[in-house]
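Researcher: Next entry: SDR family oxidoreductase (Naasia lichenicola).
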Amino acid sequence: MALDGKVAIVTGSGRGLGLAYAAELARQGAAVVINDVDAQTAADAVSSIEAAGGRAVAVVAPVGSTETAKALVAAAVENYGRLDILVTNAGVLRDTVLWKMSDDDFDTVINVHLRGTFTAVREAVLQMREQNSGGRIICIGSPTGQRGNFGQTNYSAAKAGIVGMVRTWALELKRAGITANAVIPVAATAMTATVPYFAAAVEADAAGEAMPAFFRHDLGFGTSDDVAGLVAYLASDAAADVTGQAIGVGGDRLQLWSHPEAVVTAYHDGGWSTEALEESFPVEFGSQLQTVGEKFPPLPDDLQRPAPTA
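Model: Predicted structure:
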C-alpha cells in the first residue's frame, strides 16, 4: 500500500469529506488521527476505520488554537511514533451578505479555517522538521476561495488565504522535503444538499446510485470518495515533486488551478494619471475584465426538480 508506515492527522474528519480522506489514507496503510468537536462522532469514525482494518485514534477538540494543534501532533507521536501527513479539513459556515455579517460570523469562520490551518501546519512542520524525513501538508480549499461566492465574505477570505499560505509554505519547506498543496473539492456535502441545482445528484447519492453524467463529467461534481484519492496521492511518495499547487477534483474531473497572473499589461509614458486611465482603460482592459463567481450551465430537462414550496 502507498502509505505503509506513515502517520496522518486529518482535522474535521468525523464525517463527510474529512472522514472520506481519513478512511482512504488508512486504506492505503497510514495510521490516522481523527479530529472532531463531537466525541461520539469521532469515536464512530475511529470504529469505522478499525472495522475496515485500519488504525486510528481520536482527538476531540475544535481547531484554531495552538493547544489543539499541539494535542493533534502529540496524539500522532504518542500513539504511532511520528507524523508524516497533515490534512487540514475542519471548517464551519456562517453565511450571510456583507452588510448583515457580524464580527462573530467573520471571526468564527476565519478562526476555524484560516487560523486553524495555520496553527495545525505550524505544529506539524515542527515535528516533521525534527524527524528530518520530509512530510506532506494538504490543505483543503474551495472554489469559493478561487472565484468568490455571494454571501460568503468570511469563507472566501479564509479559503483564498489558505491557498496563499500553501504557496508560501511550498517555498519555505522545500529544503526540508515537505510538500504543501491545496485541494479544491467539489462534492455532495451537507451544504450542497440544500442547493436545488444539485438536487438530482444529491438524490442519487443518497439512494446509493451513480450520479448523472452531467454532474460527474460536465460539472465535476461527485461524492466525498471521489476527492479522497487525490488526497492520498498527494500524501504519497509518488507526489514528492508536486508542491505549491491548487488542484481541483470532483466527480470524473481533475483540474490544475493557475496561480494569479497578469492577463493584460499596458504602459503610459509618465505614468497613469486619472485622465490617461479614463481614456485608455476601457480600450486596454475593458474586454479582459475577469469574471467572478461560479457560472453553471442550465440543467438538462430530465435533471430539473420543482422549486421547493413554502
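Model: Note for the record: The CA atoms of residues 72 and 78 lie 10 Å apart.
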